[in-house]
Amino acid sequence: MAAYPYVDETDSPRITPAVQWLMAACVVVYFLHLTLPFRAAEVQGALGFQMRDLTRAPWKALTYMFAHGGFMHLAGNMLMLWFLGTRLEHAWRYEAKSPAAGSQSFTYFFLWCGLGGWLAHVLFVRSGLLIGASAAVYGVMYAYARRWPDTELLLFFAIPVKIKWLVAGYVAWDLLNGVFFAGDGVAHLAHVGGFAFAYLWFLPSREGLDRLRERMTPAADLPDETPRAIPPRTRGAPRERGSEIEEILARSKAVVAKRERREPARPPLALVTPGRKEALDLVLDKISEKGLDSLTSEERKLLEEMSRKLRSEQAT
Q: Which of 63, 94, 138, 273 is a Cys-bridge partner for 2, taking CB atoms 3.0 to 4.6 Å apart?
């Protein structure tokens, strides 16, 4: 399902499509700063946001993210986006219903957090030129720390610090500077706005990125049941909506649940002979591991036969 196999959590996957394109856009804009005959300030002004653009150029709420004030500004943001965003997007691509959906979700998330930085600037600062992807990168930092809070990074290349504390320190520093020491030319509150919007992105969910995966793919994780009428789906297993076998399995589960409520002491699948029950369990395990497409014609016939028996019992 994923473009490349999901690696161990300690491994570093290769750069992912959304991160690659976002980085490329920022680098190209910075290249224009250096090579076009007019001044870099004019490129920044064309893409960056100022309060007068609120009504006459509202698209700058997005374009400001791709302009940067200098090489160190660009390099810092791109380094964090590459280092944290690649692993995060890779995980989302693996968990989504398709790799493209995972990359699309990551792109939307990045832009959403950038809008949070823009909104914080509009509400609390209202002056100066807003440029840079820092607010969006702060959102990526939050999502990474939310998923892998105990990952250790080397602060100043020497001091190991868990990322959850590092991100908390960054946000506290920006909040303190934005409220009490504004005017240093850094959009501190925009950074906090990106972090806040990342928090809002996950707010409706009680399970964080598991809930995000649930929204992006129809495949659901179900606990193991013994005995069971339907095998639990493995994460990322493909689902065929409306397929005949899916309907058979759904009916089977409904009938078994009804029978268990009516006759608690009667074991599920009681109307199947021991030999057939073992064969059916093997088929269900195969669906759990490899999906419905892996079934042979004989195995499908077994499921259909079981479904007919269950419907007959339900009718009686």
A: 94
Q: Tell me the CA distances in angstroms from 114 to 80, 88, 147, 149, 186, one per residue in order.
A: 15, 17, 20, 22, 15
Query: What pTM value is reported for the model?
Result: 0.63
Q: How far is residue 52's CA from residue 35's CA, in Å, rounded to a whole number?
A: 28
Cis before 218? omega within 30: no
> Do you know the residue count of the chain?
316
Domain locations in the chain?
A: 17-216, 244-315
Task: Assign 233 to helix, strand or coil.
Answer: coil
Q: Which residues pair with 155 in a beta bridge?
A: 159
Tell me the pLDDT tens digit for each residue of 152-211. Answer: 988 887 889 999 999 999 999 999 999 888 777 899 999 999 999 999 999 875 444 455
Say which residue the tokens 């832009």 belong to.
111
Q: Quote the CA–CA distance of 58 and 45 in Å, as a whole number.
A: 14
Which residues, 6 or more positions from 175, have their beta carbon under 8 angstroms from its beta carbon? Answer: 188, 189, 192
If we measure between CA atoms, which residue out of 90, 131, 99 comes closest to residue 114? 131
- The dotted CATH code for 17-216 is 1.20.1540.10
Cβ atoms of residues 313 and 260 within 8 Å: no
Buried/exposed code over 88-106 (b: 16+ C-beta within 10 A; e: otherwise): bbbbbbbbbbebeebbbbb
Alpha helices in the chain (DSSP H): 17-35, 40-47, 53-56, 60-63, 71-80, 86-95, 99-124, 134-147, 163-180, 188-202, 209-216, 244-262, 274-290, 297-315
Q: Which residues pair with 130 in a beta bridge?
A: 49
